[in-house]
Amino acid sequence: MQKDSVFKREYVFLDVDVSTKEECLAFIAKKAVKLGISTSEKGTIDGFMERENEGSTGFDDGFAIPHTRCEDVIRPSVMVVKTKNGIDWPSMDGKPIVVVFALLVPKEVESTVHLKLISSLARKLVSADFQSTMLNSGDPDEIFGIVEKALNN
């Protein structure tokens, strides 16, 4: 499986008006079904929440990387959601989450796939330039470009 197949331009969503982690995950699950990534909104939400119950996926500086490996997911995918106002999501520094990188991986796919995706994104999150662009850009093509590059490095 090639990494570039997991992320497409139509998987970038900007100015999403949600105020909680649960609303954000429901938005992601709904879009995942619409885009043919998942067969079930409820199953996808349950998969995300099962992982969140083990420990929050909120990082520092306004970023979160929720992820699920569940039976309802059809193909490995990465979605980017940039929230309109930041949302209440437990994070390492207590700041609201602005940018969400959602990783969706089918249950039957080897676990190394989602670990590699998480690792690629987490490595980029230490870059001030990457963070700044993600937080400040309103250009979906620019966001797609830098995330695609992060996933393929």
Please outline what is shown here.
The protein has 153 residues and is an alpha/beta fold. It has five helices and five strands.
3D architecture notes:
- With 153 residues, the protein is an alpha/beta fold.
- The protein contains five helices and five strands, in the order βααββββααα.
- It has helices at residues 21-34, 41-54, 111-124, 128-136, 140-152, and strands at residues 12-16, 63-64, 67-70, 77-87, 97-106.
- Strands 1, 2, 3, 4 and 5 form a five-stranded mixed sheet that branches.
- α1 (21-34) packs antiparallel against α2 and α3 (111-124) packs across α5 (140-152).
- It is globular, with a radius of gyration of 14 Å.
- The two termini are 15 Å apart.
- The mean pLDDT is 92.
Strand segment tally: 5
pLDDT < 50 runs, ≥5 residues: none
Shape descriptor reads globular
Distance between the termini: 15 Å
- What is the share of helical residues? 40-55%
How much of the sequence lies in strands comes to 15-25%
Q: What would the average pLDDT be, to the nearest integer? A: 92
Quick one: biggest sheet? 5 strands, mixed
Order of helices and strands: EHHEEEEHHH
Based on secondary structure, the structural category is alpha/beta
**DSSP summary: helix tally:** 5
Rounded to an integer, what's the Rg over CA atoms?
Answer: 14 Å
Key traits:
5-stranded mixed β-sheet; alpha/beta; 153 residues; 5 helices
Q: How would the blueprint of this fold be written?
A:
Blueprint: E1 12-16, H1 21-34, H2 41-54, E2 63-64, E3 67-70, E4 77-87, E5 97-106, H3 111-124, H4 128-136, H5 140-152
Parallel strand pairs: 1-4, 2-5, 3-5
Antiparallel strand pairs: 4-5
